[in-house]
Design brief:
Helices cover 63% and strands 0% of the residues. The chain has 236 residues and is mostly helical.
């Protein structure tokens, strides 16, 4: 499923790129050249209705495939692709929350190949969905229920559960809360947001899963700046 979803996005990205560069095939005709390029999202409905796939699983599968070492297509064309998904109501708010929850729980696996995964998820998914009122931060579930956690089939199998990417993503979300939509929020408002989302227990439970704290906190400081880090890091 993930590979088909990735191909769907890449087909749209290619058409959009050709259109933007004025390189549409001649047989498309002048009239069609002027039409807005929109993605064919019928595949999503097929997965939901014919294959019985949960919307959150579909979203999770898409993100795990398109976020890789080559992010140029995502940087250039995912915003309009996501807009089409929103406008056509492929997913509802709950679906976005559940799909992103699955993804953040899977980040320890992805970060090995894509160290900036927290930045990509924030920039291309969480931030735009939040701005459009399609995501409630408090519904992001950072830790999987025990019954949903994968179990290693062999004693030698490694289960990746380091939490560095989670802390970095939380820091980006908290900084955005501080900046506010139209005017900066007070730190008390940021602390209230943190408490309302019930992140205190999450960060406490995940402290022991940090891979090399001596590098994590300086990396967060480099990303968000010394001034913000002086408040955010102690909160985390």
């Amino acid at each position: 499923m993930g590979d088909l979803l990735k191909k769907n996005f890449e087909a749209y990205a290619l058409k959009k790129k050709m259109s933007d560069e004025g390189n549409m095939e001649e047989e498309e005709g002048e009239e069609n050249k002027q039409k807005e390029i929109t993605p064919d999202l019928s595949l999503y409905e097929k997965f939901k209705t014919e294959n019985g796939k949960a919307p959150s699983t579909i979203l999770f599968s898409l993100l795990t495939k398109i976020f890789d070492e080559d992010m140029q297509k995502v940087d250039n064309y995912f915003a309009s692709y996501l807009d089409a998904i929103i406008n056509k109501k492929i997913f509802i708010t709950r679906d976005f929350g559940e799909g992103i929850s699955k993804f953040v729980q899977f980040m320890p696996e992805i970060v090995l190949d894509v160290p900036q995964i927290h930045q990509y998820l924030w920039k291309h998914v969480i931030n735009p969905l939040n701005r459009k009122g399609q995501l409630k931060m408090r519904f992001i579930k950072w830790v999987a229920d025990a019954k949903d956690k994968p179990v290693a089939e062999d004693e030698d199998d490694m289960m990746f559960d380091e939490s560095n990417a989670m802390y970095k993503l939380m820091a980006l979300i908290l900084i955005d809360q501080k900046k506010g939509d139209k005017a900066p929020s007070s730190w008390d408002e940021v602390f209230k947001f943190f408490d309302d989302c019930k992140w205190g227990k999450v960060v406490s439970d995940k402290l022991e899963k940090i891979d090399d704290p001596d590098t994590l906190w300086p990396e967060i400081k480099d990303e968000i700046g010394n001034e913000m880090a002086s408040v955010i890091i102690p909160l985390l």
